[in-house]
Write a structure and sequence with these properties.
The protein is α/β, with parallel strands linked by helices. It is 41% helix and 17% strand. The protein is built from ten helices and eleven strands. Strands 1-11-8-7-5-6 form a six-stranded parallel sheet. 41% of the residues are buried. NADP nicotinamide-adenine-dinucleotide phosphate binds next to α10.
Length: 283
């Protein structure tokens, strides 16, 4: 079977182009959109993520402001800055690049961001809105996966979706979104028994297990759609995912590659949330 290789790079570019046109329209009456990104310390991976976010802002016409705080910034100082930005009406979105240093509680940081500016969609308010099916900021990676499925005409409604992983940024919001889209959802985690058998029942298998090439063809039903959220480096330092691609792909009807699948969608959906912040503000 020749699977459809889902092209996240192209779809993310399409979304950014659509957003660019939307932002041009929004700007016609003088409205500006501003995203503030805060990075603590100089973790190289975080620096790359922050740079990519700034580039995406530039591409679609959103202003980006960044605060690069020293690695020993206290939680109090960080919360003070967030509070200042919450009260700054020229700021639409606030994002703190995770992970934060060990001595800072990420939950305190996420809680401090005003729900109207929570463009990452991680706050208890945004997660609650998602669970209630109320309009709000959607967690970017799971929202990107819905776009990948919809834009490839993969039917979610009525499908059995198995999500591997239950983290607050991937597994849980993913499960809620699939449920809101009328899938029948099974969520699995490290205490799940018979993981292979459960995964093998999935029409759509979404993997955010954080373990390199963990999912093999033994976990996949013939004709399933497989979405790989994982990002790792293999022994040759090349990017790979949570799914053993070459082994699994021949059994699927569609599959996301790593790189070029889910990864590019996260930033596109962050940009979508920045644009949405203006719409939510006007509501
Ligand atoms: P995480 O916080 O480490 O969560 C991993 C989840 O997998 C946990 O719920 C864990 O269960 C579960 N798990 C671990 N071992 C398992 C096993 N043997 N069987 C079944 N479940 C198991 O990771 P995450 O933040 O969700 O990220 C997952 C992956 O996605 C990582 O590779 C990360 O780099 C990647 N990621 C990519 C993007 C993107 O933009 N593409 C965004 C975010 C994350 P417990 O809850 O029981 O511990």
């Amino acid at each position: 079977m020749e699977p459809l290789i889902i092209d996240g790079k192209k779809i993310s570019t399409d979304i950014k182009d659509e957003l660019k046109a939307k932002v041009n329209k929004i700007k016609e009456d003088g409205t500006e959109i501003t995203l503030v990104v805060i990075q603590i310390g100089d973790d190289p991976a975080s620096t790359v993520y922050v740079r990519n976010k700034k580039r995406a802002c530039e591409y679609i016409g959103i202003n980006s402001r960044s605060y690069e705080l020293p690695g020993d910034t206290s939680e109090e100082e960080l919360l003070e800055l967030i509070n200042k930005l919450n009260n700054d009406s020229s700021v639409n979105g606030i994002l703190v690049q995770l992970p934060v240093p060990d001595y800072i509680d990420p939950l305190n940081v996420i809680n401090a961001i005003s729900p109207e500016k929570d463009v990452d969609g991680f706050s208890p308010y945004s997660m609650g809105a998602l669970n209630l099916g109320v309009d709000g900021f959607l967690s970017c990676t799971p929202a990107g996966i819905i776009e990948l499925l919809n834009r490839n005409n993969i039917q979610i409604d009525g499908s059995h979706c198995v999500v591997v992983g239950r983290s607050n940024i991937v597994g849980k919001p993913m499960a809620s979104l699939m449920l809101n889209n009328n899938a029948t959802v099974t969520v699995t985690h490290s205490h799940t028994k018979n993981l292979k058998e459960i995964c093998k029942q999935a029409d759509i298998l979404i993997v955010g297990v954080g373990k390199k090439e963990f999912i093999t063809s033994e976990y996949v039903k013939d004709g399933a759609v497989v979405i790989d959220v994982g990002i790792h480096r293999d022994s040759n330092n090349k990017l790979c995912g949570d799914v053993l691609f070459d082994d699994v792909a021949p059994h699927c009807s569609a599959i996301t590659p790593v790189p070029g699948g889910v990864g590019p969608m996260t930033i596109a959906m962050l940009m979508n949330n920045c644009v949405k912040s203006v719409e939510l503000k006007n509501k």
